[in-house]
Amino acid sequence: xxxxxxxxxxxxxxxxxxxxxxxxxQEEGRRRSVVxxxxxxxxxxxxxxxxxxxxxxxxxxxxxxxxxxxFDDASTDDSRKVVExxxxxxxxxxxxxxxxxxxxxxxxxxxxxKNKATSQSCGQYLCFQDADDVMLPQRxxxxxxxxxLHPNSLIGCKVQRVPEGSTERYTRWINTITPxxxxxxxxxxxxxxxxxxxxxxxxxxFLKVGSFDEGGKGVPEDLLFFYQSIRQGGGVARxxxxxxxxxxxxxxxxxxxxxxxxxxxxxxxxxERVLSQWEIFTIWNAGKQGRKLYRCxxxxxxxxxxxxxxxDENKIQKGFYTYEESKQRPKPxxxxxxxxxxxxxxxxxxxxxxxxxxxxxxxNSLQLKEGIDYYHFN
Length: 378
Fold this sequence. Notes:
alpha/beta
């Protein structure tokens, strides 16, 4: 690998609640030292993972120019010291390093740290890397090649989950959904169909979409950015090879996001992107989840629900669902039908991969097309 002509200068800010500054000379250096790929890495108390993570960056087989841009979000361990300890090895490999951060009493969150690491970087393409994950040697090369072909897309990849067996259904979904489902299944509870720790995109596309939400703990900045990318007309693609070891542990930031937060964002996006285009539809599931979705819809979209459908004879025999909380008089009564008696389009509120293949068989028997005749919501 040919190293960049100019290694990046460390921009370090230690004043509380103060962002790093860039001098005119440094800005000129930035313009002269544009590299092909910036590996963007927010860090917060990640010292126990960093050696393995950084070693993997050294082993990348990408032959273009790279830099590692790290922002330390007020770590209280020696994360910054660990990264600095890798500077000589990284630069010997041709990977320039820029690291900054802050030491205020509280971290400002993943979105803030990602934005800072991105803004201080200079790569034409951005490879997002979590400090607790490990990239395989082909990751940067293969995702760079894909991103060059799809400059207005978020590029993901398949993953290996560790410890093995953790989040088994989620991992299977990440690795097996089809290219079409990368778009049609954006409303499911799993979140982005290419997960944030695997993202790779052009800087130009990132700038068009805008920065990550900086609301901090409890804000799903990845889902918000993902939805905004789709709103902007962006594509979603995946390199169909395992390029990342994706670590599960209890301290991961994703655990701070509540189900209700995700639910509301998903309902709003579903209404915006799908239900606004439909005049009438059926909710597939007359149980708890289907009824909850109905109650969360806008009054306009509630009126579009012509029926619930199900396979549970007890629900079907009741004949209808009464929306007791409604202020309308008389209260809305929605028919409950057997799925074979219902008609498309459907919003499906049955969990994927939890019925032993029965749901999939029922859908196939109706000869429906995902993304036209139905969308998965759960």
